[in-house]
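HUMAN: Now follow token order:
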Amino acid sequence: TLVFVVLMARAWLYDAAEAILGPHMRRIGAAARAWLGRHPADRAMTVRFDAVHVAPARWPRHIVNAFEIDIW
């Protein structure tokens, strides 16, 4: 599995979760397409998009398969 991860840091974990919007998803989708364009062997792998939310004095929260992007 090839995993692309968005890291969001905010004052509150809830705000970090809410901060992943269209522009962020478009950027990570573009990054995934660029990676796969340069590494064609990775196209055979399962692709997943995760998120890690961080906030002061809190443990980071890792969200597996946080969202889906059509990269093909």
Notes: The mean pLDDT is 92. Residues 53 and 59 are 9 Å apart (CA to CA).
